Amino acid sequence: MTHNTASQTTSVSTEQPELLPARTLCEYAFCPRAGYIEWVQYDNADNFITLDGTYKHRRVHGREDELPSLDAANDSAPKIARSVLLSSKRLGFIAIIDLVELTEDLAVPVEYKRSKKPDNPEGAWEPVRVQLCVQGLLLRENGYSCDHGYIYYIDSKERVRIPLEESLIKRTLALSAEFRRITEAAEIPPPLENSPKCNGCSLAPICLPDEVGLLKERGLSHRFEPRRLVPARDDAMPVYVQVQGGYVGKSGDTLSIKEKGKKVAEAKLFETSQLVIMGNAQVTTQALQELMRRGIPVIYMSTGGWFYGMALGPMNRNIDLRLHQYEAVRNAESALILSRQFITGKIRNCRTLLRRNARGEISKELAELMAAAKKAATAENQNTLLGIEGNAARIYFREFSRMIKKESMENGFTFQTRNRRPPKDPVNALLSLSYSLLAKDLTVMCTAAGLDPFLGLFHKPRYGRPSLALDLMEEFRPLIADSVTLNAINNGIVTSKDFVYGGTGVNLKPGARRKFIMAYERRMDQLIRHPLFGYQISYRRVLDVQARLLGRFVSGELPEYPIFLTR
Length: 567
What we know:
Blueprint: H1 6-15, E1 20-21, H2 22-30, H3 32-39, H4 48-56, H5 70-73, E2 79-88, E3 93-103, E4 106-113, H6 126-141, E5 148-153, E6 158-163, H7 166-185, H8 204-207, H9 209-216, E7 237-241, E8 247-251, E9 254-259, E10 262-268, E11 272-278, E12 282-283, H10 285-293, E13 298-301, E14 307-311, H11 319-330, H12 332-357, H13 363-377, H14 382-398, H15 406-410, H16 426-449, H17 467-473, H18 477-490, E15 499-502, E16 505-508, H19 510-525, E17 527-529, E18 536-538, H20 539-554
Parallel strand pairs: 1-3, 4-5, 7-11, 8-12, 11-13
Antiparallel strand pairs: 2-3, 3-4, 5-6, 8-9, 9-10, 13-14, 15-16, 17-18
């Protein structure tokens, strides 16, 4: 079973949202949760299976035909129409039929499937037969006779005849009525339990079936360990452009980066997850349009790493999720519950980083941080929580220099206290840049998950500030940003000579900034064992999972937001 492309879903759902697409009913018959996500939450994704299916459908989707009039159809010569769009308000269905064969007034729908013919008596699984049945009913509604259809399996090159029997019609209409009842109730169906249907499903990163199932039963004995249903790492990676005065153009399926008319770098579009413009570089209209079409964000930052904003194509259409987010922000109790989790996670992860890396005796400081984490978990209001967080940060940064090697401190990497805007020493300059990079990535993750990155719960909304991204960032500051900074200092990736001192501020030189960004990206790509779910996954994938779990919590599906705590 495969999912259809997001572009096809958009064209149907936005034009006639009251009509149920045949392929979505097929999805619902296969997995009610997947059907709900696709049609009600307007969320979708591609993977290699869906892209392969789109490619194999190119012959029938290469052009859009209209059915001939009934008078013309009565001609005995057979006719073929491809990619035929039909709908019926009475039935409440809409469908794009891959192929329709016509002889006189008899119309036969043909549904193409990328796979091989299944080994079952009907020669097709029920969801596909339901999809074909909807197509047959729409042909009848438009005046044609239709008593059967065909499933054509592309891989095995086999055709299976499916009669439109009364039992199939009743089952199709019953599923449609059931789906509409669930839609009106606005309650997402539960995930399938340890189902093989989840393997290869393009919606698995959105649905998170095993993760949601586990978190719903947290504290109870569960019957299976969560499976890693998505790749541990992303194939695509961010592309950073730091060439001042350069520009980015498109050449075929490749981004071309030029300086003074000379190409200095290139990147394949399918290997690009973000285009990050740091400083004064231009992006051509052709490149920008293609990036938007592919859903690749273009992020604009200053040369020092200040996040300006991003350009993106159509935003995630899950407005229901954003409405739940707005309600959570307005509700002081729910906002406090989430804020406690964010800050508790941050303090505990800061404590772990100190415990692992600090030189000397720090048992007193570790005890203070653990006490602060416990207080944060039970803080009575946001102001109290803010005070607890500030005190914990003071303890943490007071001991931060203990994690810097002595030889690095002797070479100019001394640290007294956290300062910014502008950072006054090399260590703070690196911390500020790493925090900016992390905020940028979490802004992208929140947007992709359907959340509003600018409306936070702990960080109050401020013009241009991605407050929700900063909320999610709290628990990952020590694990990603601080760790990258310490690694770059202690392993000589940057040296004290890599900084420019001007006025009261300190900045990295361009070459050193490139090296530091590479160190940051290596950290994001590092595989770790998820402390809660047990499978191996990169930090970049962890951020995506956390953003989507936050969405499941604010929409009421999960009893709590799970903190990510390193072991």
